[in-house]
């Protein structure tokens, strides 16, 4: 983006006056933030227009990434960095006596996602713009994002996330692009000119209004679009008519039910409940998104035949899987295509990513609900199912069990993952081990039928947000060593390994880590009151709280360390600060108890003078993208300790690595590939392998009582949960105790305890050798390039979407050329 300092100052001061009627002296920090965002908005809009024009002119294939969640994080700083105007802006403001950092903190951090899946979508958006792909997002503009978490009396308390309360600077409402979405009613069949017409009647119509957010590429003038849909009442006429008929309550009921659709993000992740509102949300944004894509396509394309050559629709997990029957509906009922033509177009257009193998996350709807809410979509889904089952019958005549295990509609339920596999041309997992598990276990039968559909795309993260923006000192060090090429070509980070033995680089890296730890320590003190030693190991475990992610294993290990320190305060361990953050789904009792246990343990450990400050435990409330940006750069150790086979990929693991933290982890998800990238010497691997886990599930042989009775450390810890060691929670923690002992420890916490503890001993010893440790850190940073989402996106583009990049400023004068 092109702007000079003086221009920027002028625009900024002018905005303060015109927007707030104030001079600079009277303006509040928020006023100034709003005024600055307006300047940036104006600059971005120019490139945005240009990008869209260029896309139309070149007619290149467009990608639409459909996702229920986009966990964007704050945007102002990313816009400045990617637009190449951060320095200009910083200096311009400084000359006006304003600190840019302070203004940036005014921006709300929209929590429009639960965790990994939503954050991945946001990283993908950033990378698509960076590699100049015409790729856009389609989702929901939730009025309330994921709840704000507070810790009160050691418990998690949920508050609404009212991220829109002061307005949102980066959205552009586009009422002229609104479309209608229809729910309920019934289908009447009419015979019309030799074919059946399906007429949807007595439906409830909802208006989907788009709010567009610009996605700015790194110094390339590309601006893509994230289109978030908001639900509104169709028009006032309905209300007036009802009022006139005295149907006030009915009219209000309609308004109310419409408002619900885009009101709130469901706060579970990896746990599915068949709520009708959730299905409504899914169909709402999918239908609106597809309608607007087709509307745009038809502006320049006379026939639907070429649709798959011009449009790729990617569905992020099964949440948007109704895209399959919805696209069929539009192509047949509105565009007049035959079933076969519509099916060919639909399957060539849609591709699907699976993000979890957890059975409790699989989406299935009861036929009754699906049919009542989406009658025409149900008919089409039924037809897809029948044709699919017939094909299966031809392959396996008489094998009902097999067909039952694969049918899209069976036993009164509609199976969305099956619909997504059958209705798409590509199904991918998000890390090699995850894809292998899909092919060999969870989707084995489907893989047999469609061997060519399945492929792997290991996740990635945008190194611009997670390194360049959030760890500017480290970014500068890397650039000083290897030049700035890595920002566009993250694979060049590899060259940083040449500096592993360079004492000056080692020393600078050590200082950078320490300075990031200092910033975090200050935040910890301010938010929890706990003073932590910045020379202790910062051991960080941040992610959603879930049994399979095994925060419990970490807690048990801390309890064991504490017990040993109580026995021997002179125990030779490096002082440790254990840092946790993460939200628990509001209805997930054990997860909430886990948070309580961490907090209670913290209060016992942190005030105990006997252990000579060797251990500190903190839980930071309200984990978010912004908090992550402070935590990853300050971590020494990254906890990635899920039960092998359960974590599809993980992306936090990549953020830590990129910031020089060392992983202690199981061979699960992308940890396996991180291990391959850095080698045995630069990571601490422990625990059961996924094969061993599967074998236990299949053949049995695991007995938690055996471990309980034979490992005194475990027996002690488990008893401490219920024997008054935590005096006020004596009865409360019995649920955790029981979940482990009565349910035979579903996630093998006890089984992996010993090898986890041993890995920590090794880690502690390695940390004592300062030089070895810093070399490990350099190796991790240097080998993190392959985990950039630029790499991931290029693979999706080449192997799934078949899209090409578009140079927005070809032939124009811009900052890139
Ligand atoms: C599932 C459900 C089920 C219904 C209720 C609401 C809801 C919301 C989200 C989800 C998705 C859970 C799947 C998920 O987040 N998977 C994570 O995806 C990451 C990106 O691929 C990956 O790194 C994590 O390992 C994986 O757990």
CATH architecture of the largest domain: 3-Layer(aba) Sandwich
Low-confidence stretches: none
CATH class membership of the largest domain: Alpha Beta
**Given the C-alpha coordinates, what overall shape results?**
globular
Task: State the distance separating the first and last CA atoms.
Answer: 11 Å
What's the SSE blueprint?
Blueprint (H helix, E strand, L loop, with lengths): L4 H16 L8 H30 L3 E5 L9 H8 L2 H10 L4 H5 L11 H15 L4 E6 L7 E5 L2 E5 L12 E2 L5 E5 L2 E7 L2 E7 L2 E13 L6 E11 L2 H9 L3 H14 L14 H25 L6 H4 E6 L6 H12 L4 H11 E4 L10 E3 H7 L1 H21 L4 H7 L2 E2 L2 E3 H7 L3 E4 L2 H11 L1 H6 L4 E3 L6 H7 L2 H11 L20 H26 L8 E6 L8 H17 L8 E6 L7 H18 L8 E6 L4 H10 L2 E4 L11 H7 L3 E4 L5 H8 L5 E2 L4 H10 L4 H7 L1 H9 L13 H8 L7 H20 L1 H13 L6 H13 L16
Helix pairs in contact: 1-2, 1-4, 3-19, 6-33, 7-8, 9-11, 11-12, 11-14, 13-14, 20-21, 21-24, 22-23, 22-31, 28-29
This protein binds ligand 26V.
Architecture overview:
The protein folds into three domains: 1-58 and 75-108, no CATH class; 68-73 and 111-458, 3-Layer(aba) Sandwich (Rossmann fold); 463-689 and 750-785, 3-Layer(aba) Sandwich (Rossmann fold). The chain contains 33 helices and 23 strands. The strands form five sheets. Strands 1, 2, 5, 6, 9, 10, 11, 12, 16 and 17 form a ten-stranded mixed beta sheet that branches. A six-stranded parallel beta sheet has the order 20-19-18-21-22-23, sandwiched between helices. Strand 14 and strand 15 form a beta hairpin. It is globular, with a radius of gyration of 27 Å. The N and C termini lie close together (11 Å). Bound molecules: ligand 26V. Ligand 26V binds next to helix 6.
